[in-house]
Structures are given as structure tokens and as C-alpha cells.
Design a protein that fits this description.
With 639 residues, the chain is α/β, with parallel strands linked by helices. It is 52% helix and 13% strand. Strands 1-2-3-5-4 form a five-stranded mixed sheet, with helices on one face. Strands 12-9-8-14 form a four-stranded mixed sheet, with no helix packed on it. Strands 11-10-13 form a three-stranded antiparallel sheet. The longest helix is centred in the last third of the chain and has 34 residues. The mean pLDDT is 95.
Length: 639
């Protein structure tokens, strides 16, 4: 039933076709010009996924319906995906982002989740993990391996953090289905499928997926069904793989120390898994780069916490490449000489390796390493590596890094320019940075996201900046209102009392919903940062509470979250928050209300002291138990 939809509204309908089936696009009136640039690749996606999965698109037509006030990005209703308005891109928005990842994700669900549906929410990853990996597959097919690996890189941190560290992907113990829609079911599960593909090879992996789709078409399935099908097709046991990655939480932390002995002509590689959990079964590949384009590959299956490899080599390596195919969801910490890192950042063929080298050098403050990062920012062939190099330069906070960033304002890719501007946040109260940002704001910068980043960075680095740029920005519509939202957040950092009136005005009906949420967030930030009179806090609380009647769930949740961030200053909102926590129709709003109540109560000085005392008591009780245990052991020894 959760895949059924009914949508009523005034739409403009555009139509394409694929294999004699209708491909329909329903968009709000006035957005007709955005249909082609947003959705034109849908038939190509239908063709690609049909061939890749070996099962043609299973429904009679495919529609994508863009609706107002949708609470998430998209929902894979069978044959009629529902999408939020942000999916529609005008010409300038395409400089900053692509709608393809969302469109490919929801279209992928038509197979993974719709044709075959998870038997219960414990197996949600069979829906969301596959749809997430569909984003990766489309990027690989449409744009190439570099874009594929960058998509995987973007998902890496969230796949190794949060609930992915504390709960397994297939978690059968959950309080509410909504708690299952997290980074285990999305990025980590997508990464697990990527590893599984590499473990089996494309023929067995996609052949197994075809068998699974055909076997369970129009039925429900669970994790064991997928594993057994892949085992039957590949002839391999996958029990250990699924145990490590699907049935257990966490990920491996792999330390790799490489050292070459010129006397013995041997490369020693020390491997150590340092995570607290037991060892993962890791098939590890390390490529040793030699002169004249030669490579010696080392393949090792690591099943223990610690291993040492010895590799005979005719000469000193130029580089050592760990996991060159980017197939491990592991935190890899390498210890090797600078020359090998320098080779990797300049010459490694894969984006993932160059990105790891950039992250390595961002920890350094040496002039030679800053020069290397600047070289990457100026010359690397892939935009994502240049963007991460910009962030790395900002992390160093060195004058040479600032100069490199200021020189990069003319980068051709808007996504890199945005990274450059945001990296300048590290240089607070710097006259050069402030002047460059103001000049760029006055330029003809076409990117919405870059202009928003300029406002955001200006507010953070300037000791005192006039309100004019931020107030002027409130008159500038943009994709997903990124410019106005940035301006409102900037005003939340301002000490001018007049801006409080501006923020409260932008809470009112008649302004875009995303801006109203941003105004609430900015008000909360302002009250947290500045000791304002109680009367001002009460005005802000009343302005937020006045928004709630008739507001949609996204706006209600945004207001409630902002009230929670105000802490003790929002105490008079507690009766309404208690009502929402008990009776709101949206589980997300109820959760937000409960969190806000806790935040306000924790901000009470008396409550804070009670919490501190409770924590001290808990620590004393734990220490008491430890002492009892030690005493018991001593008595045993005495006997």
C-alpha cells in the first residue's frame, strides 16, 4: 500500500516515449521550460537499467509528478514517482548540480522496491541500497568512472558513521519503521553492493541480480533470498561477506605501513585492522608502481587483525597504491614516504587515490606541501579533486593557502568556485579575503550556489559587514532559494537589532517555505549567539508559534527544531511543543518536538547541575564495580 499514490492538482503535462510506452512529466504551471533540461535523460535511463538488470522496465508507463510541499526528495510510487519541486533545474541551476541522481534513484526503485519489495522494514536495504547504487551505476554509464568514484567518495563518510557504526544494515530491532531510513539503508548499503559487485565480477553480479528479480518479481523478499540467489549463480559462498557487512555494524579501520629496503630489494607492508570489532575478511589489492609504466600487483586476503607482506622488487617504487580500484568501505590510514604520496596526488589514475592524497597533505603546513595542493587546485583534470584540494587549503589556514584560493576565483567549474569560497571561511578578519568576497558579490557570477557561498563566507569572516549585500540578496530568487536562505542565515549572525524585524517578517506567510524555515533557524542562532533582552526572545518565540497553525509538516518541523535550538529562551513554547509531541500527525514533527523539549529543559541551569551530578554518580558507581572486581581477583590470588 505504501507504493500507491493519488495526486490532484493543476499540472502541465509533457510526454516522451520509450519502447512504445508513455513517459510522462507532470510539472506546476510556469515550469514548462525546465522539463527538458531536467527530465530529458529519463528514456535513456529506462533503457540503461533495463539492459543492466536484464529485466525490462516492468510497468505499462512511467510518470514523474512534481508536487508542492513534498516532505522528501522523491517517492517511488509504482509507475508514478512523486518528486519535490527542487528536482526542476533552470539553466543556471545546472551549473551547481544535476537532477540525475534523484531521478535515477527513484527510477531504480521501480525494480528494487516495487517489482521486488522487502518483506519487512528490517530488509529495507534491499530497496534503498539498490536505489542508491543506481545513482552510482548511472553516473558510471553516463559520465564515466571518475564521476562514479566521486559519487562513492561523497557517500563514504556517512556510510562509515552514525547508525552505520552502531546498528547492522539488516536490523530486526527497531522502534518505528521511520528509524530504518538512515545511512545504513542508503549509503552503506549502496557501498556494500559496490563491494559485492567487485567480489563477484560483473557477469556473476548482474547475472545474479537478474535471477533474483525474475524469481521474486511481484513478490516480497528478504536478505537471505538475495544472498542465496547470488551464491547459486556465482558458485561462491557469501555467508562471511553478508555476516561482516550486512549482519554486523561498523567498518574496518586499516593501517597500512609501507617501507622499501634498498639493501634487500624488498618492500615490507605491515597491515593492521585497528577497529574494536573482530577482523573483517578483506580481499586487498596493492599495486606497486615501478619505472617505465610497470606495475606489480599484490593480492592478499586479510582475515586476521594483523599481517605482514614482503614483496621482492628490482628497484625502489615510484608509488604504492592501496585499493586502487576503490572497492573497500574501510578507513585506510597509510604510512609511507612523502615521494610516494606526491606521486599519488599527481599521477594516480583513479580519482579516489588522488582524493586520499589530498586529504593526507591537508594535515601538513609545510610550504612544499601547500605548493603541491595549489598545483592540484590549478591543474587536476577532475573537478571533484580540485574542489577537495580547495577545502584542504582552507584547512591549513596559511597565508600561502589563502593566496592560492583567492587566485582560484576564476575556476571554470562553478562547483570548484563554491568550494574555493567556502574554504575561505578559515581566514577570519582578513582584509584581503573580505575585499575579494565583496568584489565577487558585485561580479556577474552566474552560479546560484557560488553567490550563496559568498554571502555565507562573508558573514563568517567579516568582523563587521554592512547589511546591504544580505538585504539585497533577499530580492534574488534562486534554485531551492539557496541565495535567500544564505542571506537569512547571514543576518542571523549580525548584531544589528533591525535585522530581528527582518527575520520575523520572513517567517510570515507569503514568503517561500524554505526561506521561512531559514528565517526561524537564523532567529534561533541570533538568540544563542547574543544576549538579547527577554522581551526580544519572547517576540521571536511568539512569531514562530504563530506560524504553526496551518503549516505543512516540513515547516512545522523546521519551526519546532528552531525553538529547540533557542534553549531556555523558548521556555514559553513548551505547552505547544508538548502538544505536538503527543498529537502531531507527522512522526518526524513528533520526534522534533520531543528533541526540542529535551533541549529546552537541558538548558535550565538547575537541570544542567542535576545532569552533571547524575553523571558523576554514574561514574562513581562504575568505578565502585571495578574496584569490587579487582578486590575479588586479589582474594582469588590470595587463596
Amino acid at each position: 500500500a505504501y507504493l500507491v499514490t493519488l495526486v490532484a492538482g493543476e499540472f502541465v503535462v509533457r510526454e516522451q516515449s520509450w519502447r512504445d510506452r508513455q513517459v510522462l512529466y507532470y510539472v506546476p504551471r510556469g515550469r514548462e521550460a525546465d522539463v527538458e533540461r531536467t527530465f530529458a535523460r529519463t528514456p535513456a535511463m529506462l533503457e540503461f537499467f533495463s539492459r543492466r538488470f536484464g529485466v525490462p522496465y516492468p510497468w505499462d508507463k512511467y510518470a514523474q509528478v512534481v508536487v508542492e510541499q513534498f516532505v522528501v526528495g522523491g517517492m517511488e510510487n509504482t509507475s508514478a514517482t512523486t518528486l519535490y519541486e527542487g528536482v526542476l533545474h533552470d539553466e543556471r541551476a545546472l551549473l551547481d548540480s544535476s537532477p540525475d541522481w534523484l531521478i535515477s534513484h527513484e527510477l531504480g526503485h521501480q525494480w528494487w522496491g516495487d517489482l521486488v519489495t522487502c518483506k519487512d522494514w528490517a530488509h529495507l536495504w534491499l530497496n534503498e541500497g539498490f536505489a542508491t547504487y543506481c545513482e552510482v551505476l548511472w553516473a558510471e554509464h553516463h559520465q564515466g568512472r571518475d564521476e562514479r568514484d566521486y559519487r562513492l567518495w561523497e557517500k563514504l563518510n556517512s556510510a562509515r558513521s552514525g547508525t552505520a557504526e552502531t546498528r547492522p544494515i539488516a536490523d530486526r530491532f527497531y522502534a518505528h519503521p521511520q528509524k530504518m531510513f538512515d545511512n545504513r539503508a542508503y549509503p552503506k548499503a549502496g557501498w556494500v553492493l559496490h563491494m559485492l559487485r567487485h567480489r563477484l565480477g560483473d557477469e556473476a553480479f548482474f547475472g545474479g541480480l537478474q535471477q533474483y528479480l525474475r524469481r521474486f518479481a511481484f513478490k516480497s523478499a528478504e536478505t537471505t533470498d538475495l544472498r542465496q540467489t547470488l551464491e547459486q549463480v556465482s558458485g561462491l559462498s557469501l555467508e562471511r561477506f553478508f555476516y561482516d557487512w550486512v549482519e554486523q555494524p561498523g567498518h574496518p579501520v586499516l593501517e597500512v605501513a609501507s617501507k622499501y629496503s634498498a639493501d634487500e630489494k624488498v618492500l615490507r607492508i605491515d597491515l593492521k585492522q585497528t577497529q574494536k570489532r573482530p577482523a573483517f575478511d578483506l580481499p586487498l589489492r596493492i599495486d606497486v608502481v615501478l619505472g617505465e609504466g610497470r606495475t606489480q600487483s599484490v593480492h592478499h586476503r586479510m582475515i586476521d587483525k594483523q599481517d605482514t607482506l614482503y614483496v621482492s622488487l628490482p628497484e625502489r617504487p615510484l608509488g604504492v597504491r592501496v585499493d586502487p580500484e576503490f572497492t573497500l568501505l574501510a578507513e585506510i590510514r597509510e604510512n609511507k614516504i612523502r615521494d610516494w604520496w606526491a606521486w599519488q596526488i599527481r599521477r594516480a589514475p583513479s580519482v579516489s587515490e588522488r582524493l586520499r592524497a589530498v586529504v593526507h597533505f591537508e594535515k601538513s603546513r609545510a610550504a612544499a606541501d601547500l605548493k603541491l595542493l595549489r598545483e592540484v587546485l590549478e591543474t587536476d583534470g577532475f573537478w571533484g579533486v580540485r574542489a577537495v584540494a580547495a577545502r584542504a587549503l582552507g584547512t591549513t589556514r596559511q597565508p600561502a593557502a589563502r593566496d592560492a584560493l583567492l587566485a582560484a576565483f576564476e575556476q571554470p567549474d562553478a562547483r570548484v568556485r563554491r568550494a574555493v569560497v567556502l574554504a575561505l571561511k578559515s581566514f577570519k578578519r582578513d582584509g584581503k579575503v573580505n575585499a575579494a568576497l565583496l568584489n565577487h558579490w558585485k561580479s556577474d557570477e552566474p552560479s546560484y550556489a557560488v553567490r550563496a557561498a559568498v554571502l555565507e563566507t562573508l558573514a563568517e569572516v567579516s568582523e563587521k559587514v554592512a547589511n546591504e549585500p544580505f538585504l539585497a540578496a533577499l530580492q534574488m530568487p534562486s534554485h531551492r532559494e539557496v541565495i535567500r536562505r544564505a542571506a537569512l542565515r547571514a543576518l542571523g549572525r549580525n548584531d544589528d537589532p533591525e535585522t530581528l524585524k527582518v527575520l520575523r517578517e520572513w517567517l510570515r506567510p507569503g514568503h517561500p517555505r524554505d526561506c521561512r524555515i531559514a528565517a526561524a533557524e537564523a532567529l534561533a542562532e541570533r538568540h544563542r549567539r547574543q544576549s538579547l533582552p527577554v522581551a526580544e526572545a519572547e517576540r521571536s518565540v511568539q512569531a514562530m508559534l504563530a506560524v504553526l497553525p496551518g503549516a505543512g509538516p516540513r515547516l512545522r518541523r523546521g519551526i519546532v527544531t528552531a525553538l529547540g535550538r533557542m534553549g531556555k529562551r523558548a521556555e514559553k513554547a513548551l505547552p505547544e511543543l508538548n502538544r505536538l509531541a503527543l498529537a502531531d500527525a507527522s512522526p518526524q514533527v513528533r520526534d522534533a518536538a520531543n528533541a526540542a523539549i529535551q533541549s529546552i529543559e537541558r538548558d535550565d541551569p538547575v537541570q544542567k547541575r542535576l545532569d552533571e551530578l547524575a553523571k558523576r554518580l554514574q561514574n562513581l558507581e562504575r568505578r565502585n564495580e571495578e574496584l569490587k572486581s579487582e578486590l575479588s581477583k586479589l582474594r582469588q590470588l590470595a587463596k
